[in-house]
Amino acid sequence: MGPISRTVLAVVAFAVGCTGPSSPDLPSRPNTGAPPDTGESGGSWTPAADLAELVGRVLSGTVDPRDRPALEAFLTRVTAWDGPWRHTVRTATSEDGLAWTLDAAAVWERASVPEAVVAGDGRIRLYAVDGDLDRFLARALANDPVFRDRGLVGLAGLACRTSEDGVAFGPEEPLVVGVNPGVVVDPDVVLLPDGTWDLLYVGAEPGAFAEEATAPGGEIASWPQLARGPDGIAYTAHGEGDPIYRFLDPTHARETEDRWWMIWNGLWSARSADDERTWVTSPDREDLAAMTPDLVLNDGEWWLYVQCPGVTSICVARLDDTGSWQLVPGPVVRHGRSPSVIRLPDGTWRMYYVDDGSAGLTRARRTPRPPGARGPAPAVRPRDPARARRAGGSPSPTDRGFDRPP
């Protein structure tokens, strides 16, 4: 979900960074020197000065009913953007991971960046970036604590559901990420042999990256967040990396007991040799310049499902003996992106992916690099020590950021 992630982050950056005539119409603060409004909702109240303050009220649970017109104006503007509120998650099945049969039914409307995991009982848990703007508004007006549990749900936050058959999913479950109070998107989950659920996601706090959203090239700084939990529902912090430009759509996998491998959008990568406590970022891209990766270990061989270079379809690449990715000819799924691929207990494969209605339109600005072409290493911005990195403001004991290579 490279384009999707970038859009979601840009929307929230827009929300917190824009004031003035290009912003949605917000009630202006009165300049008459009159005392604050103490209308029917009770208590003092003044209109939000800008969208940064408005989003801050949503996250802190201090929205007043009189904020409704401002919230509605903001969401009206948001609907013009491409984001999870315009997307649908669909599914497909395969016997070999290469030839796929698409299911006609939609799995999840108004959702994006799916991440599927087969639980120990054989059920499938599906995470996604929730795009239900109507529910976002209702929850914001109700000061629902869900925004503190798992981000700006409905705009830039996570939700999850469970299914017995992989097609019909139950109601939303009470997911608690409890790590980053702000933007929580692009989940990737690994179920460890001891039953621990390992969650990696993209975090960004509203306002922390607003300046990057308007910088040349529109590069946005976000950062890796790690959390673990016993049941796939309640997570606690496990670690956090420094902000990295273009850190979107991560996938990760455990190679050995302590060694982990992470790849993110554009196929930058990092490895950890101490159970995700510290990471060393590769100075080079992987050999395949592609988007929205998903790592799968297939009978000892690493496969990588990606958005095909330059087109909205899904391809697969295999890692050869030299450590290079070899792209299998042709897309395996057309008109889709953001794949999440799992192996079921019976050996069959299931994929969840995003149908954004693009009908395979080429992306002129996504010119693929020739095989073997390398780009510069992604810039890493030093962490701001004043940033409240998670609820309570205290770092995890394992939080040491991402180490750079010599």
Average pLDDT, rounded to a whole number, is: 76
Number of helices: 6
Order of helices and strands: HHHEEEEEHHEEEEHEEEEEEEEEEEEEEE
Task: Indicate the structural class.
Answer: alpha+beta
Shape: globular
Total number of β-strand segments? 24
- Helicity, as a percent range: 10-25%
| Uncertain runs | 14-40, 208-218, 359-406
- Kindly report how far apart the N and C termini lie: 31 Å
Biggest sheet overview: 5 strands, antiparallel
Q: Mind telling me the C-alpha Rg?
A: 21 Å
Portion in strands: 25-35%
Model description:
With 406 residues, the chain is an alpha+beta fold. It has helices at 2-17, 51-60, 68-78, 133-141, 146-150, 210-213; strands at residues 88-94, 100-102, 108-109, 111-118, 124-130, 151-152, 156-163, 183-191, 197-204, 221-229, 236-240, 244-245, 251-254, 260-264, 268-272, 279-281, 291-298, 301-307, 313-319, 325-327, 333-334, 337-343, 349-355, 402-403. Strands 1, 2, 3, 22 and 23 form a five-stranded antiparallel beta sheet that branches. Strands 8, 9, 10, 11 and 12 form a five-stranded antiparallel beta sheet that branches. Strands 13-14-15-16-24 form a five-stranded mixed beta sheet, with no helix packed on it. A hairpin with a 5-residue loop joins strand 19 and strand 20 (325-327). Helix 1 crosses helix 2. The longest helix is centred in the N-terminal third of the chain and has 16 residues, at 2-17. The two termini are 31 Å apart.
